[in-house]
Amino acid sequence: MSEKILECVPNFSEGRDMNKIKQITSVIEQVEGVRLLDVDPGKATNRTVVTFAGDPDAVVEAAFRAVKKAAEVLDMRTHHGEHPRMGATDVCPLVPVSNITMEETVEYARKLAQRIGEELNIPVYCYEYAAFTEERRNLAMVRAGEYEGLKEKLADPHWKPDFGPSVFNARAGATAVGARDFLVAYNINLNTTSVRRANAVAFDVRERGRVKREGDPVTGKIVRDKDGNPVMIPGSLKSVKAIGWYIEEYGIAQISMNLTNLSVTPLHIAFDEVCRRAEARGLRVTGSELVGLVPLKVMLEAGKYFLRKQKRSLGVPDGELIRIAVKTLGLNELHPFRPEEKIIEYVLAEKTKKRLIDKTLESFMNETASESPAPGGGSVAAYIGALGTALGTMVANLSSHKRGWDDRWEEFSVWAEKGKEIQNRLLKFVDEDTAAFNRIMEAYGMPQNSDEEKENRSRAIQEATLHAMNIPYQVMETACSALEVIKAMAETGNPNSVSDAGVGALAIRVAVEGAYMNVLINASAVKETPDAKILLEKGRTIMDKTQQVCGKIVEKVFESLKLFD
Q1: How many degrees, rounded to 5, is the angle at CA 90 between CA 120 and CA 154?
Q2: Last residue of a domain, which of 141, 158, 179?
Q3: Do 473 and 555 lie in a common domain?
Q4: Domain hosting residue 461, numbered range
Q5: What is the torsional sign of CA 412, 414, 418, 423?
Q6: Which of 17, 75, 83, 272 is catalytic?
């Protein structure tokens, strides 16, 4: 149900001529489904890091256009800068952000690499997760020799590009296309101005750790291995780079961290570990700051982590989870943390897009009551289902927090999380049902001046109608699954809220029956097709089940309410 979001962070070998940089970023902004998030030029490095994200296919298209434009406006023969580089588009990593796996990201990266190589005649190497060989996973190995050594490198069969010609492209150089984990730049604030003490904490936690010394850990002789390299004492956090520094603007020392694999060390774990290590050294963490943007999942996981430590239900709205995370991590200490500006999914949300679920209750009601045929019964059924499920979620959250039931908080938290997931899925159908209706209207409006156009129109109408049947069917299926939560809350939840569970069950019944009516009315034009027959049969089964289960829940609720007579 949720949209896939892919991020791209290409590095271009130009950091001084803003006109050239603008030409590159302009082609990115022209691609529908992509949002340009950041442009960071560096004069000393003569390099610009660009960040954009959106629909995976659109991101790959924007990346290709950007690489093409860079090859047109940049010339590596005259490029000089402090940062290692081998091409006009030096690196072009793709990063999974939301609802997309690393395996899928690798496929997108390799498709992009192939297209760059074949259509632009630029040698392309795939690195990190997209690499075809272990040796090429490491970007430093791929880029060794840089632009100046590229001609000789391409002549070596061992360094034949993964895509594109083994021919030196003097103007564009070569490009490395990769798939990597999301990297979070994260600074943790300390109540000290001492860089040495901040570094001590940084060395405690970073994966690389600190140099091992004989005797005194600060002034003792460095211990070396048989090859003469310093022996390191690893830190406590994997996939973490860290160093201490002093920020004059804030008058404090910080632990500056790069979290390179959030599945190994999430943000909240890094924060807690720094707190622990700082306290052991007589320091105190006062807050933290996120540099750049983060996926929504990072903040939600942090909120759940801190609620779990309090033995509180995790099935609360996303906004509450984010508030808990922001408050606990101290993300407001140095400057305000605004989710709409710092969370990728929120930044990507089209503010101008008119969604039904963004309306107030009154405006949604008035929109429904207007002369327009949409939103109609399908959208209303989905919304009623979401509200009914929300009542079950509410009872679970109240039960988790009930005095005397502290040992059962996790039991009800699981139910609340399940309810929250279902209600959010149903909420999305509110707009999808209306979109499905509009798709049918568009199909009917197609031209039919020729036999081919008539055939295309007929096919489009049938496909749109089957889609319009499938949306309310999914509403039925999803809403029915909420009865498991509501039934459990009616039987074992907070008795003071049993009536809420009852209302929730009745709302689910209305949602399912209302959605089935929409399945039936859409089926009138395609009811003889195999797909329609299957949906009608399955829908009837779901409705029968819902009526049966709902009846038992309501009966149970009324029995319980007799205690209040």
Answers
A1: 65
A2: 179
A3: yes
A4: 356-564
A5: positive
A6: 83
User: What confidence tens digit (pLDDT) does each residue in 408-450 have?
Assistant: 999 999 999 999 999 999 999 999 999 998 999 999 999 999 9
Nearest partner of 30 among 70, 8, 71, 61, judged by Cα: 61
**Is the preceding omega at residue 10 within 30 degrees of 0, hence cis?**
no
How many domains does one find in the chain? 3
> Mind listing the pLDDT tens digit for each residue in 201-217?
999 999 999 988 888 87
Q: Which residue has the tokens 């211990």?
A: 223
- Helix locations, 330-402, DSSP H: 339-342, 344-348, 361-369, 377-400
Q: Pairing mode, if any, of strands 5-8 and 89-98? A: antiparallel
The helix/strand/coil state of 8 is: strand
Highest mean pLDDT among 202-216, 381-395, 524-538: 381-395
Tell me, yes or no, if 433 is annotated catalytic: yes
Structure tokens at 149: 């050594």
Q: Which of 307, 327, 348 corresponds to the end of one domain?
A: 348
CA distance 16 to 78: 13
Residue-averaged pLDDT of the chain = 93
Q: What is the SS3 assignment for 494?
A: coil
Short-list 491, 315, 322, 311, CA closest to 402: 311
- For the chain, the maximum distance between any two Cα atoms, rounded to a whole number of angstroms, is 91
The CATH number for 51's domain is: 3.30.990.10
Residue 542 to residue 513: CA distance in whole angstroms = 9
Query: How do strand 89-98 and strand 252-259 relate by DSSP bridges?
Result: unpaired
Q: Which of 181, 204, 433, 500 is catalytic?
A: 433
Compute the 3-state secondary structure of the chain and give helix, strand, coil in percent, each to the nearest 5.
55, 15, 30
d(CA 361, CA 371): 18
For 319, residues 6+ apart whose C-beta sits below 8 A from its C-beta are 339
C-beta separation of 106 from 129 below 8 A: yes
